[in-house]
Structure formats: C-alpha cells, structure tokens
Amino acid sequence: MVELKTETSIDAMHAAGQVVARALTAARKAARVGVTLLELDEVAREVLREAGATSPFLGYRPSFAPTPFPAVICASVNDAIVHGIPTDYRLRDGDLLSVDCGAELDGWASDSAISFVVGRPRPADLRLVETAERALAAGIAAAVVGNRIGDIAHAVGRVCRTAGYGIPQGFGGHGVGRRMHEDPEVPNEGRPGRGLPLRAGMVLAIEPMLIASGEDGYHEAPDGWTLRTNDGSRAAHVEHTVAVTETGPRILTAR
What we know:
Monomer. It contains 4 helices and 13 strands. It is α+β, with helices and mostly antiparallel strands. The strands form 4 sheets. A 5-stranded antiparallel β-sheet has the order 6-5-7-12-13. Strands 1-3-4 form a 3-stranded antiparallel β-sheet. A hairpin with a 2-residue loop joins strand 12 (240-245) and strand 13. The two termini are 30 Å apart.
C-alpha cells in the first residue's frame, strides 16, 4: 500500500534528508587514500548522533540477509555495486567508492547515495559516475504528477543503456516514509506509461546502479550482503529521496 504524505510530513522527511546529506558530505570529505571504510562509517555515525537521528541501516535484516547489517553506511568499492559492509579495508589511490546512508528523525526516514573516486581518477570511472548522476537526474525529472512509475524507470534505464552500461536486474528504488523501504518499487528500467500512477504526496528513493562493462550479471559476496559484478568491472550507485508534489519533484536529500 502506498501512503501519500502531507506537506508537513514531507518537510519532516526533508529534515531527515538533510542529516543524510551532511553525513554523505562528511564521509566524502574524509575519504582519502589510507582511510578505512570503518573510519568513514564512524564519521557518518557522528553526524547522525549530533543531529539526534538514528540509522535505518544499523541492525536492518531483510529476509535475504544472514545477519543484521552492522553499520550506518554501505561502502561499496570498485566491483561492489551496493550493500558493501564497512571493514578495515584502507582506501587506495583510484578506488571507486559508493556510499549509501539513511537517517530517521522524528519518526521519518530519508535515504541517499553518492559515488566518487578516491585520489587520482580514471577517465572511465568519471564517465561512469557522471552517467549515473545523469540517470538519476532523468529519473527525478520524470517524477511528476500524471506520470507513472514506468516513466521513471524508462528515464533511468535509457540513460544507462544509451551509454553502454549494465543494470543489475531486481534492484532499484523504493518508497520511503515512516520506514526506509516502503511501497512502491521503483525499477531502473521499464516501459513508459506503465505501472502505478504518480500522485502528489508520494515519496520515492530513485537510485540508479550501473555496471561499467555493459553486462548485467552480479553475485552475492560471502558476507551475504555485498553485491559484486560477475566480471569484476566497476560499478556506481547514486540515490536521492524525492517527493512528488503538485509543483514538481522536490529532492529531500539534496546536498
């Protein structure tokens, strides 16, 4: 069931979204060669603590997971697409890092992700991240009253496929509200004009995931959480929580 949020509720989600934005900004600033993923997780934890917010990631255990998630960020490096668990891995020059973070504040959640290169970037990685961001922008632009979920999915998928990148099937965006994951699902590929109609008050996490090689294959790592590309190629993941309003999409996690 899809819950339509009031303007007051959307404002509250925006407050949570700004905590997420600050956490991601702080993590990106701290992400230097030699820094561990656990240290980045602690940076994000401190931002949440200072805001009086809690993490919807910490302790989260969906049906597929063998253990509760142990951190407040997902930190996915190079061939890891999403759901990477922060470890004592030290970042290296040229690593492609995706950081996903959520926050719950006053009973409302928001969720966002960024991808960037640590140190000296490869041109191919810069193109991958830039395309992911364009796909996200296209999906957000399609999140308007009168469109359908398929219009968002088509907008995201068209940017990714036109650039020659793969899309991991079965993973995409979702509704957000009192909980981090709510109805509806928001795929990263689909047919325009299909799916649930978009109405004012819907709040969606739109999150393109791209695989550099153009292949779609992925597998679950032994930790039961991290998804990795089958061919070892690099991946990027970006995300915003977006409210559908009568005046157009409102990005609640804008940095």
